[in-house]
Amino acid sequence: MDTKLQQEQYVDTISQNQIETLKNSESGNMAMLPPASENEEQWQKNGRQISIFLAKIPEYIGRFYQEYKLLIISFVLLVITVTALRISLAVLNAINDIPLVSPFLQLIGLGYTIWFTSRYLLKDSTRQELAVEIRLLRKQILGREELQTLN
Predict the structure, then answer these.
(1) Where are the domains of the chain?
(2) How far, in Å, CA of 6 to CA of 118, rounded?
(3) Which residues of 109-127 are buried (b: 16+ CB within 10 A; e: fewer)?
(4) Which chain regions cross the lipid bilayer (predicted)?
(5) What's the CA gap between 119 and 39, in Å, rounded?
(6) pTM score, two decimals?
(7) Alpha-helical runs (H) found in 25-100
């Protein structure tokens, strides 16, 4: 019974304090919302800042590209190379799954290996011819002549 009285007293005390606060408050002391124009001006200010940032994005990207040009190009070439390798492996796996194509391609590879060995690797004169062709190919690719000579 005592707990009910204490609880009621507590509730009554709070509600009486709130009523007294409402009675004592004047209309001039109450917090008022800012006018709608100030809120609108804030939105416009934020909108201007965002539009300025968006207008400067091409400049930022250009500066970033100029600063890291070599790194960006290297990364793009790496991604392209990996993608090309994955595509070529997927195509080869798809071709390899076709019946009789896999053994046929293996026969072609074996035949080319036998031809290359008999053409370039069996005789001394043809090995020298192959060495000259390799040097010419290196010169074409690298654009300079090697200091080392093959014996």
Answers:
(1) 45-97, 99-151
(2) 111
(3) eeeeeeeeeeeeeeeeeee
(4) 70-92, 104-122
(5) 86
(6) 0.43
(7) 36-67, 69-96
Lowest mean pLDDT across 16-20, 34-38, 78-82, 89-93: 16-20
Are the CB atoms for 90 and 83 separated by under 8 Å? Answer: no
Structure tokens at 126: 């043809």
Tokens found for residue 111: 């035949």
Residues 100 and 29: their CA atoms lie apart, in Å, by 93
Q: Which residue has the tokens 């040097």?
A: 135
Span 77-122, pLDDT tens digits: 999 999 999 999 999 999 989 999 989 989 999 999 999 999 999 9
Tell me how far CA of residue 109 lies from CA of 52, 69, 93, 114, in angstroms: 62, 42, 16, 9
Report which secondary-structure segment, H or E, holds 133: helix 124-142
Output the pLDDT for position 33.
58
